[in-house]
Design brief:
The complex is a heterodimer of chains A (373) and B (323).
Chain A (H helix, E strand, L loop, with lengths): L15 H26 L4 H13 L2 H26 L7 H18 L5 H30 L3 H23 L36 H18 L1 H11 L1 H6 L4 H17 L1 H10 L10 H11 L4 H24 L6 H16 L1 H15 L9
Helix pairs in contact in A: 1-14, 1-15, 2-3, 2-13, 3-7, 3-10, 3-12, 3-13, 4-5, 4-6, 4-10, 4-11, 4-12, 5-6, 5-10, 7-8, 8-10, 12-13, 12-14
Chain B lengths: L1 H32 L7 H19 L2 H25 L4 H24 L16 E2 L13 H9 L2 E2 H19 L1 H11 L1 H6 L4 H27 L11 H11 L4 H21 L3 E2 L3 E2 L2 H19 L18
Antiparallel strand pairs in B: 1-2, 3-4
The chains are: A mainly alpha (373), B mainly alpha (323).
Chain lengths: 373, 323
């Protein structure tokens, strides 16, 4: 075939499966190996731990439900971080944006609960998106117009969001009949339907927002690669100067990308508040925002990759709680270690294995017909 | 007289809070002036705090703990260098990875080694840095104003507070008056020029990051063995990020950075005093708002409402020889 002919001396193109499957896999294995060393240091058996982890994540129907429930959150935050990455921005603020999204969902479910479910679902989702996007808007504006570094501002906004959340739950929204800082429960007519109510499976927190996350993933693909908006965002992310010459406004797209990012992160609130906890609680964001960085990096900012990475993290979270339960010296923080190591290997050290793997591939690549000169 | 006393007590608290910020910000200065972004200050401090507390608890000596803290922090800093300098990885991602790994690793190891819910045993005696009464403190107490200032404000801090105070001029001297400092500044502005002069860019950045690790190690050890008495989960609570913000606000220069740190620390000292106080006109400010004050202040300051910052030119970019 004509396409397969390459110019003499042209570098061999590395096929997609090496780039998108083999390299992430090698990075994951490296992260798991180091985690295994940590488990050895604290005096447990890493092989045993891996077995417990996998069984805990996929071994029985409830486990699968829980894994997918965690996966939902990671899809949301993974997509959130990824859209910012496409624009060349590093959104560390998904944690805070998720918290704000939760406040939005909580307010709708608490004070507009006279609505029937089919009406409250779009309202709650809209509130999550608007609150999350608004929380991302300020750092985005400051980055675009005032040049303050988005990494620092979004970190600060995480802390401010945590304070705001505490204030609201301690002083304003607290359940008058309760002691702990949480709101009154939202009434049952506003709850998102559980998947186990529709499909026959054991009772798990898995709810409608999982389906929603899948739809959003498809929408993400369409937005980023098949619309003008997505194109402009990617151009700004690749080369701001080129974008400016092409008549694309970097500041407009920075703000747009960050607001989409914030909205996506806000949907964690839908899953957690409307889907599972059914009341506003503190710290429901549980580190999903930070894990989103790892998910986006591993998934190479592509929805399919993000889904697979989110599934991996969902399994790590669910299997990790099982692990903390089963093995005496391991607690839940072990999962954070693995998460950090994955960010390290697939993000910071991405150039460590890549040249070697590519070299090996080139060496053993099938011979190709070379175009005559 | 009472207002005077309150101010002195506020300043006293400011010094205590400012110490880790100053040390961490100076640490960040070496890294960033050499052209390597370091948002991993937080993780390095946390790692050092844990190592210092753990080793001090086992060995019974704060100094051995400090050494362990410094070594841990340097090791993490070298990891950052390995990722960002040797393998030219994304510096922000690397820093974040270090923060997350340490945030998970410290409670994991603490839980496994001490089984106290991720904390280390509380330290006492020689395992902590104790306050030092400076000479003539007692005899000068009767001197009006000056004596009070000397006794309450200057004297009676632990050694690391004085170390931090001394670190500012020392670091300024290193950065501006030594060959190493000149090269660090040059490599952050124009690494190609440094390379052309026959100096290894990579090795220079490694050396700068060793300095970063060293200073961050002292900052972290201070938190667990001098300011506190043992390691608590997430005890840095954003101080690394605040230090970085102070560094940016201080325009990457030692003395303005010191004042930025003092400002943040003063806000913190004020917030501790403001809690539950009924202010005229405003009433009681919610605790959570006051606690968020340093972070809000950071956002406002970084938004350039106090003049624009000019970062080192080559910051954040891995050095690639042929371009």
């Amino acid at each position: 075939m004509a396409e397969e002919k390459v110019k003499f001396g042209a570098p061999l193109k590395i096929p997609g499966w090496v780039n998108y499957a083999l390299i992430p896999l090698v990075n994951l294995i490296a992260a798991l190996l180091i985690s295994g060393v940590v488990i050895l240091i604290i005096g447990d058996n890493p092989i045993e731990a891996l077995k417990v982890l996998i069984y805990g994540a996929f071994g029985y129907p409830e486990a699968v439900g829980y894994t997918l429930y965690y996966t939902t959150n990671f899809i949301f935050t993974g997509l959130a971080v990824a859209i910012a990455f496409h624009c060349g921005l590093f959104n560390i603020g998904a944690e805070g944006q998720a918290a704000l999204g939760g406040i939005g969902v909580g307010l709708v479910c608490l004070y507009m609960d006279w609505m029937p479910l089919w009406m409250i679902i779009p309202f709650a989702m809209g509130a999550a998106a608007i609150f999350g996007a608004a929380w991302a808007y300020i750092p985005a504006y400051l980055q675009a117009k005032r040049g303050s570094h988005i990494v620092i501002t979004t970190i600060m906004f995480n802390f401010i969001a945590a304070s705001l959340m505490t204030y609201l739950l301690v002083e304003v929204l607290i359940d008058p009949n309760g002691q702990s800082p949480e709101s009154r429960p939202i009434i049952e007519t506003t709850w998102l339907p559980y998947i186990h109510e529709v499909v026959s499976m054991p009772k798990t927190p898995l709810n409608l927002s999982f389906v929603y996350a899948l739809i959003l993933s498809a929408g993400f693909y369409f937005l980023v690669w098949h619309t003008r908006w997505g194109y402009e965002i990617r151009v700004v992310g690749q080369n701001e100067t080129a974008a400016r010459y092409a008549g694309i406004s970097p500041s407009k797209n920075i703000i747009l990308a960050m607001m989409i990012s914030g909205a996506l992160a806000g949907f964690v609130g839908v899953n957690e508040i409307q889907g599972v906890h059914h009341r506003l609680i503190l710290d429901f964001t549980g580190g999903y925002g930070f894990a989103g960085i790892a998910v986006a990096l591993m998934g190479r900012n592509h929805p399919i990759g993000i889904f697979l990475a989110a599934l991996l993290f969902g399994a790590l979270y669910q299997g990790g709680s099982e692990l903390a339960f089963e093995m005496k010296s391991i607690n839940k923080e072990m999962v954070i270690v693995i998460q950090g190591l994955i960010i390290l290997f697939s993000g910071a050290l991405e150039h460590m294995f890549r040249p070697k793997i590519e070299a090996i591939y080139r060496r053993f690549a099938p011979a190709r017909p070379v175009e005559a000169r | 007289m009472e207002t005077f006393q309150i101010i002195v007590l506020l300043l006293d608290a400011t010094f205590r809070v400012a110490t880790p910020l100053v040390l961490a910000a100076l640490a960040g200065m070496f890294s960033e002036r050499a052209g390597v972004v370091d948002i991993g200050l937080e993780g390095k401090m946390l790692g050092a705090a844990f190592a210092a507390a753990a080793v001090a608890a086992v060995s019974g000596s704060a100094w051995v703990g400090l050494g362990a803290g410094i070594l841990t922090s340097i090791a993490l800093s070298m990891l950052h260098a390995y990722a960002c300098v040797t393998h030219k990885g994304n510096q922000v991602v690397s820093g974040m990875a270090i923060n997350i790994v340490v945030a998970g690793l410290t409670p994991t190891l603490g839980y496994a080694w001490f089984s106290m819910g991720g904390q280390t045993p509380s330290l006492s005696g020689d395992a902590r840095f104790k306050s030092i009464i400076l000479p003539f403190a007692e005899s000068s107490r009767d001197i009006p104003i000056f004596g009070y200032l000397y006794v309450e404000l200057i004297s009676n801090h632990n050694i690391i507070v004085y170390l931090a105070a001394a670190a500012v001029p020392i670091c300024a001297w290193i950065l501006y008056k030594t060959r190493f400092g000149l090269r660090v500044r040059a490599v952050g502005e124009n690494p190609h020029a440094v390379d052309t002069a026959g100096i290894s860019v990579d090795w220079l950045r490694y050396k700068a990051l060793i300095m970063t690790g060293f200073l961050c190690g002292i900052a972290g050890s201070y938190l667990s063995t001098a300011h506190g008495a043992g390691f608590i989960r997430d005890m840095t609570a954003g101080k690394g990020y605040l230090a970085l913000a102070a560094l940016i606000f201080g325009k990457w220069r030692p003395v303005p950075t010191l004042f930025a740190c003092l400002l943040f620390a003063f806000t913190d000292a004020v917030q501790a005093r403001l809690q539950g106080v009924d202010l005229p006109l405003i009433g009681v400010i919610p605790v959570q708002f006051i606690q968020a004050l340093p972070y809000i202040l950071t956002v406002l300051l970084l938004a350039g409402f106090v003049g624009k910052a000019h970062p080192p030119k080559a910051i954040g970019e891995p050095y690639i020889k042929e371009r």
